[in-house]
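Hi again,

Forgot to attach this to my earlier email, sorry! This is the prediction with adenosine-5'-diphosphate bound. I've pasted everything inline since the attachment limit keeps bouncing my files.
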Amino acid sequence: MENESCAFMPGKLGRFRQLILNFITSIRFRLTLWSLFILSLVLLVFSSVVYTSQSNDLKSNALSELEVKTRQVQVLFRLVDFQVTINGSLAMPDLSQNLSSFIEPNDSMTIMNTNGQVLLNNGNLNTSQINELLANWKTAQVGESPHYYQLAGVSKGNNNRDYLFLLSPLPIQPYGILVLMLGQPIDPVGQLNKLFFTLLLASLATLLVALLGGYWLATRAIRPVQMITRAAREIGETDLRKRLNLKSKDELGELADTFDQMLNRLEAAFDRQRQFTADASHELRTPLTIVGLEANRTLSRRRTPEEYENALQIIKAENEFMARLVNDLLTLARMDAGQTVLKFEVLDLSDLALEAVERLYPLAHNKGIELIAGDLPELKIMGDRQYLTQMLSNLVDNAIKYVNGNDKYVKVETGFRFVGASAQAWVNVEDNGPGIPPEHLPHLFDRFYRVDKARSRQSETIQDSGKDGERPSGSGLGLSIVQWIAQAHGGQVFVRSQVNKGTIFEIVLPLIEVPEPVTQ
Ligand code: ADP
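C-alpha cells for the complex follow:
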C-alpha cells in the first residue's frame, strides 16, 4: 500500500507540473499576458496624464489666488503708518484684524527684512524653512520682482502639506523694502490623493476584467486549433477519412480548410498508392502462376522435346512480360517520386518519329501491317531523347499490337500549328484498327487500364497464352507513361477513335523554332 502511494505521488506531481508547464507555454496564456501588459501601459499613461493635469490645475489655481492675496497685502501695507524706532528697527502694528478678511487660516504669511529678521509669522514655518525661502529669494536674485517657490511638508494644523509660496517685495515708507512670503496649500482638501487611489483602483479593476475576459476570449479563439490538433492526432496513416469541417470564415477556418484539402490530397495519394500496389501485385501474380503451373504440368510426366520447347516458350514469354511490367512499374515509381531527370536538348521531333518507325518496322511487317511514315517536316523541340523515343515507341507499338487483319496500316506523321501566339509541334500515330469505344476514352491513360478486358490476362487460359508466338497483351501502363512524358515536356496527349474505323493518338509539344515556309 505504502509502495503504491509512493509510486502514485510522483506521477501525480509530474502530471501537475506538466499541466502548469503546458499552461505557461500555451498561446492562450501568452496572449492574455501580452494584452494585459499593453493594457497596463495604456492605463499607466492615461493615469499619469490625468494626475499631472489635475496637479497642474491645482497649482495654477493656487498661483492666481496667491497673486490676488499678495496685491491685497501690498495695498493694506501702503495704507498703514509705520513707526521706525531710534535704533532703526520697524515696529510692526497688529494687523491681524485687517488681514483676516483675505488671508485664510490655512495660509502661511511671513514678513521679514532683507537681513533675515522675521517681523511677522502667522504660519507654522520653522526657522529652517524660512531660511530656505529666504535663500531662494536671494539666489534667484530676482530683486524686487515676485518669485514662486514650492515647499514640501509645511505643517498647518494636523497636516503636513505641500505649499506654494509667492515671494514678493513689500515696500514700506520710510523704512525700505521687506520680503513678503505668502503661501497656501496646493491641494487643500487632498484631491490628488483621492484621484491617485481612484485611478489605482479603477486600473486594477480594469486589469482584472481584462485578465478574465482576455483569457476567456483567447480560450475561445484557440478552440479550433485544439480541434485541429485532436483531429490530426486521431488521423492515422490507414484512416485518412476524418475531416475537420470547420465552417467558419476566419483565418482558422481557412487553416482548417487547407488542412482538409491536404487530407483530401493525401487520401487520394494513399488510395492511388494502395490501388497501384494491389494492381501491380495482381499483374505479377498472373504470369507467376502461369509459369508455376506450366512448369508443374510439364514436369508431371515425361514429354517429347517439342512439348518441352513449347513449355519453355510459354515460360519465356511470361518472363518477358514480367520484365516489361517491372520495368514500367519502376519507370512510373521513379516518375512519381520525382527522381526522373530529363536531359533536355534541341531535337527534331520528326527524326525521333522516323527512328521509331524504322525500329518497329520488322514487327509490323511480321504481322502483315503496313507501317507508313507520312509527312515528317523538321520540327525543333526541347526534349529528352530517351524518353521521347520511349513515348513514340509505346504509341506505335500499341497500334501494331491492337491492329489485326488484312489491309491494315499504322501511319506516323508530324506537323505544326499556331495556338494563339505560340507554335505547337504535333505527332500523330494513326491506325485503321478496331478503334476504342467512347466510354473507355476518359480512362485510357489511367494506370493498369485496359479496354479489352476479355482479351486481358485474367481470361487468358494457360493453354492459350503465348501459343503460336502470340505476345501476351499489355499491362495497361504504357499510355500512363506516354502521358507523363508528354506532360513533363510541357505537352499533352489526345486520342480520337471510332470503333471499327481506327484510332489516332496525337501528342503536342512546344515548338522552339517555326520552320521556314516551303516554297512550291
Ligand atoms: P497496354 O500495355 O495494355 O497496351 P496501354 O496503357 O498502352 O496499355 O493501353 C491501354 C489500353 O488502350 C490498351 O489495353 C488497349 O485496349 C487500348 N489501346 C491503346 N492503343 C490502342 C490502339 N492503337 N488501338 C486500340 N486500342 C488501343
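Residues 398-399, 402, 431, 433-434, 436, 444, 449-452, 473-479, 503 surround adenosine-5'-diphosphate (CB under 6 Å). Confidence is low (pLDDT under 50) at residues 1-7, 454-472.

That should be everything now.

G.
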